[in-house]
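Quick one:
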Amino acid sequence: MAGSEAAWQLAERGHEVVLVEMRPGVPTGAHVGDRLAELVCSNSLGSVLPDRASGILIRELDALGSLLLGLAREAALPAGGALAVDRERFSQAVTSALTGHPRLRLLREEARGLPAEPAIVASGPLTSAALSGALAQALGEDQLYFYDALAPIVEADSIDQTVAFRGSRFGRGQDTEGDYLNCPLDRDEYEAFVDALVNAERVDLRGFEAAVGKGVRAGDGVYFEGCLPVEVIAERGRGSLAFGPLRPIGLKDPRTGRRPHAVVQLRQDNAARTLYNLVGLQTNLTEAAQRKVIRLIPGLAGARFARYGQMHRNTFVNAPRVLEPTLRVRGREALFLAGQITGVEGYLGNIATGLLAGVNVSRHLDGRPLLELPRTSMIGALCRYVTHADGRTFQPMKANLGILEPLLERPRSRPERAGAYAAQSEAAISAIKASIL
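Output:
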């Protein structure tokens, strides 16, 4: 995501760009194809609502001319208040746009060492062992990583729609019937589901590390809080799922006319409506355990899996120690990082850092000062956070209102605060827009 956006921004500014991609010659533990910007986790880029952090970030990317955001809109699927995409249409559109650019050349080979500068390393969460080692050696830091999880995807015609019902929380969405399929659980069904989750067999992470690539440092790893496996959430307390990803608020089961105790939401995953992913049910269970546990969910007793949930290793550097807010590596003239390897989480955040890295490499090549975006913008706040957090306990960060510059006058209600943050962001982007475009 970040590398694709960065390459486009550089090429559009008149620079000759070589985009190096190791797939399909060298596969990863999670990608399945050879297209650029392939989404391996959720197919949702986040909420478009103006009172959400992702909504603020979307407006900033719109104002700054993001290629990937525009292509995401063209490949959009119904998803309530979120921007979800058809994975194949989106990645194909990105690949076509980049390979068709006259100043951009796609080189399919593995980068086993750091490239000659000027360069951007935007190798994503599944950076190869060779490049991870080269980065660790060059930066003087041991590589860090955390485990991320994918949710299962099931075939639409295997969902029992006499049980599952359409609806979006609080009626949000493009479809008057609701953009999501909802599988309702009563208290007993919920309790049985939680018991099965916490007792189910899980994949050995050490074995997964070995499968990812020889030479990758193994260890216990840590989970990213924003993408915990559903079984880990369930272990935190019996009500943690009902108040988390399975919260039924704003939904009524048409069979009873009442709000269910919990609900599993399924989001459309392709334009043909033949695939649905289980929202919030990313998992590290074995495939056999997934079949057993997921089929306990009402409406999914006959579920056929198009993709099982799985874990994958996400690599990132200790950004507070090695990176400037401009995304330039400290002590290097023209080496920049972008995307998840910087510790920025989420598709939109990765696109944003790719855009900024592309802009700043262009400015470096043109002999102009690098841009450090203000913390009153969401992009600037993300870059500021990952480069100024405590390096001893650094963990990845997604866009959220808490990292923005505090408001001078803090409204009492959340909607008012979100509106004030959005206005603050709009003013910040307007002030620097001319420097970027």
